[in-house]
Amino acid sequence: MRILHIASEATPFAKTGGLADVLGALPRACAALGDDVAVVLPKYASVKVEGARRVWHSLPVTIGAHLYTANIDEVILDEVLYFLVDCPPLYNRPGIYGDATGSFPDNHIRFAALTQAAVGIARHLFRADLFHCHDWQSGLLAPLLKSSLAMDPLFLHARTIFTIHNLGYQGNFGAETVTELGLDPMIYTPSGLEFWNQVSFMKGGIVWSDAVTTVSPTYAREIQTAEQGFGMDGVLRDHANKLTGILNGVDYAIWSPEVDPHTATHYSVSDLSGKLACKRALLAEMGLPANDARPVIGIVSRFAEQKGLDLVGTIAEWLAEQDVAIVALGSGDAATEAMFRTLAATYPHKFAVRIGYDDGLSHRIEAGADMFLMPSRYEPCGLNQIYSLRYGTVPIVRATGGLADTVDSSTGFLFEEFSAEALQGALADALAAFPNRAAWNDRMVAGMTRDFSWNASALAYRDLYLAHRTVTDSTEST
Ligand code: ADP
Ligand code: GLC
Question: What is the DSSP letter of 186?
Fold first, then answer.
């Protein structure tokens, strides 16, 4: 099969969160199963790439009344073709989705152009049997294939899978977007692109794709409820028969304490001794006092409402009274950044924070911390808790979405209700359990030996791809 992924991030080219990790690993896992796999993504200013080849010059990209031209660069990594769409007026600027002043005002144009470029790539460079679209940024592809491209012989049998990585970001834009992007007005209806008088890229992907997936089974159920549906739950219930949850895998070539190039030393489930050296190095790096016996809680996160870090602020005084150190890395909303800065200034021996994005430090926190905290309001999958399991860093998580599907009471600590009391209860349990080294060791080992490698997830996606191919074949034979 020939599968073309369309996404706004992929490791190692561009990353703000877990979406990039998925696009760095899933295509490779599918290629290893024997498929031809390619990925289309924008060539942002920050994309540094060696060995790329320009494979198409001046691809016309028409967005309403505007004509852009894009050059397409190709680079091959581990059997996967990455097509980088080079369109400087849209992508050559600092930031992926926005800058310090907020989201870019032309994001609808930038990502409509990405979809148009993907169509051009499918026309000229990579004939796809199946398009695999990720999140709202690629949401217009399916509606496009079913409207203005519906009669194009090249795309008659094209099938689309749409994966929701985060329903909290829907790509909803004003009604004038129909004209601005030159969309077929026939598809701007309540059962189509229209969502509360706006054009919704996410809804377009859900409605018109042949199958919709999200990144954990629990999240697939949650998004069909009013509480977690972000207003899109009705649409998802209407399309429930084509919605499934496939848990993300993780890339153990990048995230394993045995091979991690970023950490002070290596360790493994059969020889855990190196973990203490990683803890000492982390405390030194973060300017916290050396203390082998005191547990360290790690946090690595986008600072967004989703992540529930405001609860940490609510229980900060209690935390400061405990025998514990907290190490946080992240950036995002100003209130959370300020909260962590204040905590670090008020309790310098207990809290240490780095505001920013630092890949190496995120690995050192996974290795050096004893526990890892994710008190998310919602979490489609979450990858850091799965990395933590592999690093013997016991996760303390809210039982939601993929967190509930990957952590259990033998590998970590879970709390149900989104409240400061419930979080404090789980933390108190973890801190009380820590001094019992034998039992703690068992918990670490239980987590380290869980297997969340991509292979199982890639096979699940492949079944889905094949199911849709079969539909095509039977349609053809009848
Ligand atoms: P989300 O995609 O919602 O941000 P995930 O847990 O799926 O959450 O993935 C987050 C990914 O981004 C992980 O690989 C994590 O290590 C990384 N990450 C998040 N914030 C930072 C940061 N400040 N510095 C380095 N890596 C980060
Ligand atoms: C999103 C989600 C996260 C998930 C990631 C990759 O950013 O917030 O939970 O792990 O996508 O699917």
Answer: G
CA torsion sign, 392 to 10 to 18 to 216?
A: negative
Give the closest ligand to the alpha carbon of residue 304.
1
Summarised one tens digit per residue, pLDDT across range 80-129 is 999 999 999 999 999 999 998 899 999 999 999 999 999 999 999 999 99
Q: Is the CB of 78 under 6 A from ligand 1?
A: no
Which candidate, 415, 433, 432, places its Cα nearest to that of 373?
415
Residue 203 contacts residue 416 (beta carbons within 8 Å): no
Q: Alpha carbon of 65 to those of 183, 186, 194, 400, 410: distances in Å?
A: 11, 18, 21, 44, 58
Average pLDDT (407-432) is: 98
pTM of the predicted structure, to 2 decimals: 0.96
DSSP summary character for residue 436: -
User: Of 38, 130, 81, nearest to 466 (Cα)?
Assistant: 130
Pairing mode of beta strands 296-303, 194-195: unpaired
77 CA distance to ligand 1 middle (Å)? 22
Q: Give the other-Cβ count within 10 Å of 165's Cβ.
A: 23
| Ligand 1: centre distance to CA 306 (Å) | 13
Q: Roughly how many angstroms between the first and final C-alpha of the chain, as a whole number?
A: 22
Nearest ligand 1 atom to the CA of 21 is 14
Give the Å distances, CA to CA, from 401 to 125, 301, 344, 452: 38, 16, 30, 16
What domains sit in the chain, N to C, each tagged with a CATH number? 2-249+456-476 (3.40.50.2000), 273-450 (3.40.50.2000)
What SS3 class is residue 216? coil
Quote the radius of gyration of the chain (alpha carbons, Å): 23
Q: Is 95 exposed, middle or buried (0-12, 13-18, 19+ CB in 10 A)?
A: middle
Look up residue 14 and give its amino acid.
A
pLDDT tens sequence across 385-419: 999 999 999 999 999 999 999 999 999 999 999 99
Q: Give mean pLDDT, residues 466-478.
A: 56
- Give the residue carrying structure tokens 């009669």: 151
